[in-house]
Amino acid sequence: MKITDQSRIIKNPENPEETRVPVMPLLVLLGNEIIGEAKSLRGATAIVIGTEYYDTENNEDEWHYRVEHARIEAMRALAAGLNIKIMDNNLGEIKNNYAASEDDPDYEDDTEENESMSISVENEKTFLLSLVQIGAIRIMEREDSCIFNKELTDSCNCGKCTLKKQNGEGNIICDVYDAVRTETESCMSGIVGSVKEYVGGEYKVI
To answer: Rounded CA gap, 6 and 147, in Å?
Structure first.
């Protein structure tokens, strides 16, 4: 499996003849009526951000892509009268500037007391969930998938992930990141449960 095979667009109003039946565990519905499907959190994030997300080489690059897209969504929300903060649970609020420090004259300091919502960028799962919460996207999950389904999460684990394979040296290779991983290492994409592709699955809004 190629890394880019983690997702695909199945409905685009501009190309109705290319509409496809969903076969992957996740459906991502964008605000422009485009619908994509994904078999991983990384794939779902690439639907939202764009296929350039697959070109990232490490976690830091991915984080920057999520921050930049969060800023775009924050500007869209502002036009609709919503105040959106960009948050990282490890770093706190990510200010919309690149000043070196808080005592830099160019550093923005938000003093408004208006109620606000937030987009979390520390990982792909919280990023997607926060976009759902602010109404930027919708996500539907197949009933046998436990990427988001809390009722199945406890019974699913990385050991059941079909995206992993072994190379000739016995190392675990993750098809999501195309890199050597270990059994005890948590999956950066949070892949758990069924990633099988088939027609006829039932999907529910998360």
So the answer is: 14
Residue 18 dihedral angles phi and psi, to the nearest 5°: -100, 15
pTM: 0.79
Q: Give me the long-range contacts of 107-114 (CB less than 8 A, separation at least 24).
A: 110/85, 112/83, 114/83
CA 203-125-6 angle, 5° bins: 65
Return the amino acid letter for 77: A
- In angstroms, the CA 69 to CA 75 distance is 10
pLDDT > 90: percent of the chain: 46
**Could you tell me the two tokens for 119?**
């987009």
With 0-12 / 13-18 / 19 or more C-beta atoms within 10 angstroms meaning exposed / middle / buried, residue 177 is buried
Distance in angstroms (rounded) separating the CA atoms of residues 107 and 144 = 47
Cβ atoms 40, 54 nearer than 8 A: no
CA atoms within 13 A on the CB side of 26: 32
* 118 bridge partner residues: 85
pLDDT tens for each residue of 5-52:
889 999 999 999 999 999 999 999 998 899 999 988 889 999 999 999
| 157 token code pair | 């684990």
Closest CA to 110 of 97, 127, 121, 123: 97
